[in-house]
Amino acid sequence: MTTTTVKSAFLKGFADGSPFILVIIPFASLFGLLATEAGLSVLESLVFSLVVIAGAAQFTALQLLQEEAPTVIVLISALAVNLRMAMYSASLTPYIGSAPLWQRAFAAYLTVDQSYVVSIAEFEKRPEMTVPQRVAYFFGAVATVAPLWYIFTVVGAVLGTQVPDSWALDFAIPITFLAMIAPMFRTLAHVLAAFVAVVVSLLAAGVPYSMGVIIGGLAGMLAGAALEKYLEQKRGGS
């Protein structure tokens, strides 16, 4: 395989991942702004994004930090939100699992919703791609996402230091999560999982440190999985 082929794969990944700019810029800016409102410095906000690079987990941790939850609760909650990354990794392994260790380590760090969705769709559509081509495509797909996430975290954090406390921008966190999950309601199991998670979370609202949300999430996943299994058995028996 020639260098040109690998370069072409990278450029195609770059082009396919570029539309996410429209989401990353406001989302990263919002995180930086809310992080400074929660008491983090601009540098701390940037380090947060550099280390975690996972929007949903960062917003979850940020909300718990505002509630002065114990560090262990913050870590467990962020890890729970990011459990989907383990599934992403398992799904990508058949395609790039034989790449050099340093490439796999870098890909693991850069595995986010955007890079995974774009890459897995391309890999399934083009099974003839070689491992180096797939790795190049993956890095191309995230080449706009990661830098802009860092840059606009700083932009939002700088702006956040100039926003009056009276503006109370905390409401933006639940709105952001609603915008993220709404497009995911693609099957009846997804809808049931969301419904059960909401109901259980409301019933468990009194649990300290927002752990009711984790309980609701687990209940929702179990309900969705149970419905999917039931529907598969029903289709198999018909």
From TrEMBL:
It is a multi-pass membrane protein. GO terms for cellular component: plasma membrane. Its main location: membrane. The chain crosses the membrane at residues 20-40, 46-65, 135-160, 166-182, 189-207. GO terms for biological process: L-valine transmembrane transport. Keywords: Cell membrane, Membrane, Transmembrane, Transmembrane helix, Transport. InterPro entries: Brnchd-chn_aa_trnsp_permease. It holds the Pfam family AzlC. It is found in: Cell membrane. It comes from the Bacteria. Belongs to the AzlC family. PANTHER family: INNER MEMBRANE PROTEIN YGAZ (PTHR34979:SF1). This is AzlC family ABC transporter permease.
